[in-house]
Amino acid sequence: MEWAIPKRRTxxxxxxxxxxxxxxxxxxxRQALAYTRFAASAIANVTTRxxxxxxxxxxxxxxxxxxxEGPDNSYVVSPLTTYVGYAEYEIGRLGRPWLTAPLRRxxxxxxxxxxxxxxxxxxxxxxxxxxxxLYPANWDGVDLPDITRLLVETYPDHAIGxxxxxxxxxxxxxxxxxxxxxxxxxxRQVYLFDGHDGPESAYLHRRDSRNDGRLLxxxxxxxxxxxxxxxxxxxxxxxxxxxxxxxxxxxxxPQFTAxxxxxxxxxxxxxxxxxxxxxxxxxxxxGWIANxxxxxxxxxxxxxxxxxxxxxxxxISQITLEEAARRRCMLNMSAGAAHFKRMRGGQPxxxxxxxxxxxxxxxxxxxxxxxxxxLHSVAVPVMKGLAL
Length: 388
What we know:
The protein is of the alpha+beta class. It folds into two domains: 2-190 and 349-385, no CATH class; 193-347, Aminopeptidase, CATH 3.40.630.30. 39% of the residues lie in helices and 23% in strands. The protein contains eleven helices and 14 strands. Strand 6, helix 4 (144-154) and strand 7 (159-166) form a beta-alpha-beta unit.
């Protein structure tokens, strides 16, 4: 049985088809169909319902949350987790008691208000359930009025959201959404690298990048592409990801399973590279997702018990930087490890969620607007001032 991608019509929502073989449509469409079929069930801490939005030019994954899915639902589908649970984690890492105490109090009060306002009752478009969602390079947003109308009519009691937008990469989309009354809600500070000059890209010639390049050349590690991985390798790669993103950092990060990694490599929406030591052991893993103009790395992991002098994070970061230059594209290296990324030429950019709430009851609208004002006036200056 084959999946037939529907003939292009007007903007509409499509339930994912439970079938095996993909046929027809663009490569991006096939990936969206494959991903939407099972992705949420293969991420251990994500509870949501997925469908597809057909725009006439693109098929985009859509996540639908009704609220009440639980406090441990990952931030990739839960605004409450983003602005309360994950915010508390990040505040705890600031190491500045004079700042963390009042911020914690503010977040806890805000959290109670956001829960009352049902901010987790939300439909999010182009949500690949990743820390950084990539938008089609050729999408100018001219169909956003039709998309908004359809979603508001279909889900009149839900906010309508788009995650992972920044003004450097998505200026036209943001402008169109703002013109339609969408609110800009800051979420975090990400780091961008411009690889359009290929091997001559400025970031590759920074001192730290040159040092990392030499380390990669002489490390002795073999770069094993995903196509060469065996089924039995994936559970261990999952452990490497967990060791960094869940055990060292925050368990509210998406908990990708071995099945998710395996399906991503198989279906083409994820490209994996594992670093194999001379002893034959996988010590690190890297997975990227890319479109025509930008690349991002949702999967980064390594054995955190190994000596730091091996520079495993440096190695996988250097592979990513070189890949973006090889493709002559932008690299969105997401948030975290801010000093490391700045020293290698990463340019900070505030990331936003764009949220349409004008159809909701006034009290719920009001809370979203308060959230936006607080984040613009408090969180953004903190992120910029402390170079987070």
